[in-house]
Amino acid sequence: MLNDRVYNFAAGPSTMPESALKTAAAEMLNFRGSGMSVMEISHRSALFQDVFDSACEKLRTLMRVPESHAILLLQGGATTQFAAIPMNLMEGGAADYAITGNFSAKAAEEAGKYGTAHISANTKPGGHDKIPAQEELSLSEDAKYFYYCANNTVYGTEWQYVPETASPLVCDMSSDILSREVDVSKFGLIYAGAQKNMAPAGLTVVILDKALAGRELPCTPKILSYKTMIETGSMLNTPPCWCIYMLDLTLDWVMREGGVRAMDERRHERAALLYDYLDNSRLFKPHALPGSRSFMNVTFRTGSDALDAAFIRGAAEHGLVNLKGHKITGGMRASIYNAMPVEGVKALVAYMKEFERENA
Amino acid sequence: MLNDRVYNFAAGPSTMPESALKTAAAEMLNFRGSGMSVMEISHRSALFQDVFDSACEKLRTLMRVPESHAILLLQGGATTQFAAIPMNLMEGGAADYAITGNFSAKAAEEAGKYGTAHISANTKPGGHDKIPAQEELSLSEDAKYFYYCANNTVYGTEWQYVPETASPLVCDMSSDILSREVDVSKFGLIYAGAQKNMAPAGLTVVILDKALAGRELPCTPKILSYKTMIETGSMLNTPPCWCIYMLDLTLDWVMREGGVRAMDERRHERAALLYDYLDNSRLFKPHALPGSRSFMNVTFRTGSDALDAAFIRGAAEHGLVNLKGHKITGGMRASIYNAMPVEGVKALVAYMKEFERENA
Predict the structure, then answer these.
(1) pTM higher than 0.90 for the full model?
(2) Is B219 on the interface with A (CB under 8 A)?
(3) Which residues are CB-contacts of B280 (< 8 A; sequence separation ≥ 6)?
(4) Cα–Cα distance between B260 and B262 in angstroms, integer?
(5) How do the residues of chain B divide into helix, strand and coil, expressed in percent and rounded to 5?
(6) Which of chain B's termini has less CB crowding within 10 Å, N or C?
(7) What structural domains and CATH numbers belong to chain A?
(8) Helix (H/G/I), strand (E/B), else coil: B68
(9) Tell me, what DSSP letter sits at residue A134?
(10) How far is B102 from chain A (nearest CA, A)?
(11) Residue contact B246–A39, C-beta within 8 A
């Protein structure tokens, strides 16, 4: 951490590996001796195709993506996938949706435009403080797929198991992709907005069982057709080249650090520091229930809005920034994605202890 | 131009102002004293909102966008607008499309999914070497809008007049926005992929008469609804923050250089250098007819594929890169957008003369 850098606990866009930022700065005016920025070169050039292929190959290696699955690098964010998924996979029929937070609710609402979104579970009555158990999921017989959001950034809950369903699994992994080992072969479709664990905002990674492509509704915009994007190598039009470049640099960092296994170990280390302290604090209370707690977004509060505000302000003065919770929930949220050093979490816990001593 | 930089004639992504690149590199690890990169800060933060608002205000000032029109900063490129425009404006009815090149043809094809795309003109029989005159446009009575592409990058033609139509004008200005003065009040909708005159790929600017919003078909994805995007200030979800930041830096440069008027003067200067030489060359032949010629993309060839290839290779050895024409047309194409210095065009013409002497 440079002297003038802070520990940034923002939920997304969020902290990135410093090595990626430094390389991007150094190469800004002359990428690999081309005399151009990576932003200035044609997406059809061999130079850029090399960046694109490199990012895809690293993702395939790191996540052990089987050959049955295509990797697409797209624009539009998760909100675009909320529509693209039912347009491509629902065939005007039905699909199961587990609602465990803000974004899965939005996904289900959008799917209702294109077919029947059957609600398999809804944790809203408990304030989305837990993940439903397998036996609590209501699965419909005619579902074209089962949809869930692996990690709920707003509420700080995370699925600690992969559901077993007869229909293909479709999973929004925007906020925990690459933080844990996942058996991709179990999924029909995985997607993730890049701006938490992978790259700057403006890029969406879709990993798709190729057997599911080609079923889109006639009204599907060509740009949202998975089949078209597979056929064009994600380049029906100009892709978000800079974001793909930053993805490649970030994946370089993940590989150097020891791959997904190392990320998995670190997420345990970071989360344990925070939850262990929270479970013993007399001032701060965690929101999510044990067994459903997120390793990526730790939500907590004091119970007093005034104290919460004082804590957030004081933390910022100590270089611990963006700890304010989502406007839906209030309170605090520490987002601790892959690029957050363990030292950042230690510094946060140290300040929490200091604040508790002064305000208990 | 730095010693190790080249003159980059790529059609898009394309050359950017060096001042913007230098600022981006300098601020990479610590944006405005925040201790974070602009890629790491929340899109909901005051710091980022300031960048966003600044870019929109500069666009409004530079293009004199009236208050009747909203400025949206979106993802997805022109290809996404090919669908979004008919989904939002066609109401399942009809619209007029003038086909003057590759991208207007694609737009008309996509529109056919959502209603009737009436072809008002089609210059394909002549190899898209000209723009139709006003009196050649076949306008239908029930058209919800008239669609055209102001500048055709592949063929090197450009509309030198604004069509007069009863229905609202919808214009793809991807490759000539900010290069000439335009009366925005005449248009229902202007849009532009950013990667030629504005910012890196991954950002699309839409300038829309607000009175046209709110007519979308029921199957329109929420992310493609202009009404929703106006209501959410282009932030239904996380916008492409880096691209918006680079847009702001590029608009800084446009303003410092003298605004759109200065860009307009320079486009004349650059294009005149090339076309004057081409019209007098005994080796190189321009593709587009006088009166329809693009100020942004100058297309030409020698008539011999082998000589074309030798020219492109030799130019690259002189630091004049990406002069190969689009794969549809072959030949050469010099893209000379706002950020291309006049000196770059002079260097190109000097090399063309040298090549002609050696090969005539």
Answers:
(1) yes
(2) yes
(3) none
(4) 5
(5) 40, 20, 40
(6) C
(7) 22-255 (3.40.640.10), 259-359 (3.90.1150.10)
(8) coil
(9) G
(10) 12
(11) yes
